[in-house]
Write a structure and sequence with these properties.
The complex is a heterodimer.
Chain A lengths: L14 H28 L6 H17 L5 H23 L4 H21 L1 H4 L5 E2 L3 H16 L9 H23 L1 H11 L1 H6 L4 H27 L1 E2 L6 H14 L4 H17 L9 H22 L16
Chain B lengths: L11 H9 L1 H8 L1 H20 L1 H32 L6 H18 L4 H29 L4 H23 L13 E4 L2 E4 H23 L1 H11 L1 H6 L4 H26 L6 H16 L4 H17 L9 H15 L12
Antiparallel strand pairs in B: 1-2
Helix pairs in contact in B: 3-4, 4-8, 4-9, 4-11, 4-12, 4-13, 5-6, 5-7, 5-11, 5-12, 6-11, 8-9, 8-11, 9-11, 12-13, 12-14, 13-14
The chains are: A mainly alpha, B mainly alpha.
Chain lengths: ~325, ~350
């Protein structure tokens, strides 16, 4: 079926299209769950999530490629490095007011990216870092042959990644769901609602905020691994602050204080972002890229103006009022 | 958040102990003098290591960059102080002003001065337009901090990528002579850099005098200091809000044009300047107009002087490092009051 402007919907019936959208959306579920825990449940405005993603991805890549570590050992180590970095950033800056914290975290994330760009001997800089994904590829092949044994002939090449990303995203969603319902989660919400009151009840609020940030760093690092595997290489370009803001667009699209909203927001956002690639507008690729980001900007502005709680969020949970 | 008053974390005792030592007490009582002393000592060390000529030459570049930062910072800090809006789109105001100047100066072939004037005017008008359709209505609805913060990020995306849609990602340049240099006191300075320094400093002086002595300037600072009190005292706040946007927009437009001569004109260059401008604002004390001017100049100087000691490709990180150090050591900035944090 063909519409004016050459819009075709063939892509939307293409399995490969949905696999790649699904990988991006699943990666962003992990990425944005961290933001949800920080912003939606703890009330700390983390603008440095792309930095945690970068730290995790580069720590893994450098350990495997330069230090010749095993991939499976490098993954948890990289998570711990990301957590360490989160604590390092959080300890001095969580004492500050929300907007100062936002600026401090985005600056920290930019320092990571600029370091990755400039420390060429270690990170490959703009040339990129290659060759960390051999172990992944063999796992991917195993999953593919398992899929074939189930009777699926010639499965999509990226489908194993899709499966692993979404299994991780679902596990993280369920774990966070229960963690937030636990007494620990109730303290987080108390910190969000009224930090002084929580402190008056004897809670060490800084410790809770640091734990929230550390979990966000973990999720950021996990998202970073999948970005790295999906790209096959690492480049500082993949960790621009713009990606944090896409995460925020996903967050408010799905709604604050709703973990399932994150999944919905990520799927909607990446279907729009990737779907626009197939609208055959008579404009250059550069302009199409610009249009995609203009959409992100408009989504943010319109949601904040007319439905700040997002699609699935609850208005009474949106309490970053002052 | 008010964590400072309550010792809630393990690291506080160490901070308290440090705060008790005489040099730290003295430094926190006289922050401006301490900052000046640190800079003077730093410059003297650099002179001893690299010679007066090199330091002076680099400092000249620092003043060029610093005037761009200061022009951007003063608008950002007033908007924050008066409207309680942390405007993440401010960097893209710089980009907008520069492309408007490009439109007049290159596309239409007009003189540079006309381009600069148009860039300032267009950015000021855009700022007023956005106040009318976005910020004013959002304030009337008592929108929260996060709402406004994310809205400004949405606006930043919309501005930046609309510019990219129209002009593309290729590097553009204004119609200026970049090879011509002037000599004075044995220092070499590009003609365009000279233009940037002269225009930048004349404007900064005018801005400083205007804030200090005119009624409008005093009212702006009064509002920035305490909005409710100023309103109770009978100041027409809605008028001052409009003037603040005109002021912030025009200065951002100018900063954008000047920066585009120093660096290059790309859709994302303004956003890249935003974090150093934030650093200048925080260094000066957020909401403090004079602090922003001083913070901008200091940050420009420190950034350029750092190239004497470290490789220039790390230069961009200096602004961020200064930001983090200031937030750690003295989050209220050199001029600010501790109560605000």
């Amino acid at each position: 079926m063909t519409l004016p402007l050459g819009v075709t919907f063939d892509a939307f019936t293409d399995f490969g299209f949905w696999t790649s959208v699904g990988i991006l959306a699943g990666t962003y579920v992990l990425f944005t769950l961290g933001l949800q825990l920080n912003v939606g449940y703890t009330g700390i405005v983390n603008f440095g999530q792309a930095g945690f993603m970068a730290i995790g991805a580069y720590a893994m890549g450098v350990l495997v490629v330069k230090a010749h570590w095993s991939f499976w050992l490098a993954l948890p180590t990289a998570v711990f490095i990301a957590i360490g970095f989160g604590l390092l950033v959080g300890l001095p800056s969580l004492r500050l007011r929300a907007d100062y914290f936002a600026i401090a975290t985005i600056a920290a994330a930019e320092i990571v990216r600029i370091t990755a760009l400039n420390l060429r001997d270690v990170t490959g800089g703009n040339q990129g870092l290659f060759g960390f994904d051999e172990s992944w590829n063999s796992l991917s092949d195993q999953i593919t042959s398992w899929l074939e044994s189930l009777g699926w002939s010639d499965p999509e090449q990226l489908f194993p990644l899709f499966i692993v990303v979404w299994v991780m995203a679902l596990i993280a969603t369920v774990l966070l769901h229960f963690a937030t319902k636990s007494p620990w989660g109730r303290v987080l919400r108390a910190v969000r609602e009224d930090e002084d009151a929580a402190r008056a009840l004897g809670k060490n609020t800084l410790a809770y905020k640091l734990q929230s940030l550390a979990i966000a760093a973990t999720l950021g690092a996990l998202a970073g691994f999948f970005v790295a595997i999906n790209l096959n290489f690492l480049t500082p370009e993949a960790f621009l602050p713009a990606f944090t803001f896409i995460g925020f667009a996903v967050l408010v699209l799905g709604g604050l204080a709703s973990y399932w909203g994150v999944a919905a927001g990520a799927i909607i956002m990446w279907t729009i972002l990737e779907g626009t690639r197939f609208i055959d507008l008579p404009i250059s690729a550069e302009r199409e890229a610009a249009v995609r980001f203009m959409i992100v900007g408009l989504v943010l502005i319109l949601l904040m103006a007319f439905r700040p709680q997002g699609i699935f969020g609850k208005k009474e949970e949106m309490v970053l009022g002052d | 958040m008010e964590a400072r008053s309550v010792p809630s974390a393990a690291h506080l005792p160490l901070r308290e102990r440090l705060r008790e030592t005489a040099p730290v007490r003295l430094a926190s009582r006289y922050p401006q003098r301490t900052a000046a002393a640190v800079i003077v000592v730093g410059v003297l060390i650099l002179v001893a290591r690299h010679g007066l000529h090199d330091v002076a030459q680099t400092a000249l570049n620092g003043l060029t960059l610093g005037s761009v930062y200061a022009l951007g910072a003063v608008g950002l800090t007033l908007v924050y102080g008066i409207l309680k809006l942390t405007n993440f789109a401010h960097g893209d105001f710089l980009t907008f002003g520069a492309y408007m100047a490009f439109l007049v100066n290159v596309t239409w072939g007009g003189p540079l001065v006309l381009g600069i004037a148009f860039g300032m005017l267009a950015t000021a008008l855009m700022a007023v337009f956005l106040e009318k359709i976005m910020w004013g209505p959002m304030r009337a609805r008592r929108a929260g901090l996060l709402q406004l913060l994310l809205m400004s990020i949405g606006l930043a995306f919309l501005l930046r990528y609309t510019i990219q849609f129209i002009w593309g990602t290729q590097v553009r340049a204004l119609d200026v002579n970049v090879t011509d240099t002037a000599q004075f006191l044995g220092l070499r300075i590009g003609r365009t850099d000279l233009i940037v320094i002269v225009i930048g400093f004349v404007t900064l002086m005018a801005v400083g005098l205007m804030l200090k002595y005119t009624l409008l300037g005093k009212r702006m600072r009064a509002l920035s200091d305490n909005f409710d009190l100023a309103e109770t005292a009978g100041i027409d706040t809605s008028q001052i809000v409009l003037f603040t946007w005109i002021f912030a927009g025009a200065l951002a437009g100018l900063a954008g044009v000047l920066a585009s001569e120093v660096t290059n004109l790309r859709p994302e260059f303004g956003f890249a300047l935003l974090l150093p401008i934030f650093a200048a604002v925080i260094l000066g004390g957020i909401g403090d107009a004079f602090g922003a001017l001083a913070g901008g100049i200091v940050l420009g100087l420190v950034t350029e002087l750092s190239t004497l000691e470290i490789e220039p490709r790390w230069k961009v990180a200096v602004g961020f490092a200064v930001l983090i150090i200031v937030l750690f050591v003295r989050p209220q900035g050199i001029f600010g009051k501790a109560t605000a944090i």
